[in-house]
């Protein structure tokens, strides 16, 4: 063998890749997790329809006012920093829309414990509600108050109302009734009537999924589709039933029962009265 010429073993050894150190492996894992987590957060924010534009508009004085109101009225259940307690969930990241809906409809603060929060006269003024929403929105990104959805509501657009009626029947009527009159659920819970509810609160309910309601983010229903559903509900609210008395829009079963009890009952009673007069 000539001196200076590498053996086959030496050649194969020189071609072997060097093993990465444990610190390099940990670093790669950290980078991968950071990229994956950042991508997921971005996608989730878009899917949930999170819009921080209205949160940015909130002034610091409004946030400070909201913090004072929160600590005086809400911290008992939700914690001083809205981190949550055994009595109430964390509000970090729920966004302004959830607070505006819950407080604006009087559901919060809760009057008593029960299957679900009851609708009542709001405890706070509109300005105070907006301040509370601004404070909670400052704690973490979440769905903002959907001004762009309510601005697109149009009950005079027949195509929008028709499309909204179809979307409502597919996604909402199983709980809220096809006419938005509400209905009973299980364990003492219920889907409330949507008649008389503001456009903003209906949109916020779809975006935040309060209590037993599922969340309809922009992947499930686009902002335009939400506006179409609200257009249909407002059309039903402002137009009387063409068939006459709607019997609270409870549906064909209740309407049939009404006819059997009162209609047939009246006929039977009248027949008996005629028979007694013939005697």
UniProtKB/TrEMBL annotation:
Stated name of the protein: Cytochrome bc1 complex cytochrome c subunit
Residues in Cytochrome c domain copies: 61-140, 159-237
Mention one GO molecular function: iron ion binding
Q: Where does this one sit in the cell?
A: Cell membrane
Query: Its membrane topology, per UniProt?
Result: Multi-pass membrane protein
Query: Which reactions fall under this protein's catalytic activity?
Result: a quinol + 2 Fe(III)-[cytochrome c](out) = a quinone + 2 Fe(II)-[cytochrome c](out) + 2 H(+)(out)
What transmembrane ranges does the database entry give?
257-275
- Subunit and partners: The cytochrome bc1 complex is composed of a cytochrome b (QcrB), the Rieske iron-sulfur protein (QcrA) and a diheme cytochrome c (QcrC) subunit.
Q: Name one GO cellular component term.
A: plasma membrane
- Could you say which EC number(s) this protein's record lists? 7.1.1.8
Source organism of this protein record: Pseudoclavibacter caeni
Q: Which UniProt keywords apply?
A: Cell membrane, Electron transport, Heme, Iron, Membrane, Metal-binding, Repeat, Respiratory chain, Translocase, Transmembrane, Transmembrane helix, Transport
Q: Where does heme c 2 bind?
A: 172, 175-176
């Amino acid at each position: 063998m000539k001196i200076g010429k590498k053996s086959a073993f030496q050649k194969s050894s020189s071609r072997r890749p060097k093993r990465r150190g444990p610190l390099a492996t940990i670093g790669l894992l950290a980078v991968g997790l950071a990229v994956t987590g950042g991508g997921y957060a971005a996608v989730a924010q878009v899917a949930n329809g999170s819009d921080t534009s209205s949160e940015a508009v909130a002034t610091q004085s409004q946030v400070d006012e909201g913090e004072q109101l929160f600590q005086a009225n809400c911290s008992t259940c939700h914690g001083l920093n809205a981190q949550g307690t055994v009595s109430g969930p964390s509000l970090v990241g729920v966004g302004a829309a959830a607070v505006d809906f819950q407080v604006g409809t009087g559901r919060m603060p809760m009057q008593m414990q029960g299957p679900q929060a009851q609708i009542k006269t709001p405890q706070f003024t509109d300005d105070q509600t907006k301040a509370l929403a601004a404070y909670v929105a400052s704690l973490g990104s979440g769905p903002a108050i959907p001004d762009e959805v309510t601005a697109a509501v149009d009950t005079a657009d027949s195509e929008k109302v028709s499309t909204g009626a179809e979307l409502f029947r597919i996604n909402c009527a199983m709980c809220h009734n096809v006419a938005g009159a509400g209905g009973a659920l299980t364990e003492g819970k219920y889907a409330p009537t949507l008649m008389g509810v503001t456009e903003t609160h209906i949109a916020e309910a779809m975006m935040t999924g309060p209590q037993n309601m599922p969340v309809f983010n922009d992947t499930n229903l686009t902002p335009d589709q939400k506006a179409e559903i609200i257009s249909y509900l407002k059309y039903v609210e402002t137009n009387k039933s063409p068939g006459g008395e709607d019997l609270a829009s409870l549906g064909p079963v209740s309407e049939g029962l009404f006819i059997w009890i009162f209609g047939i009952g009246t006929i039977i009673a009248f027949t008996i009265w005629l028979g007694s007069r013939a005697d």
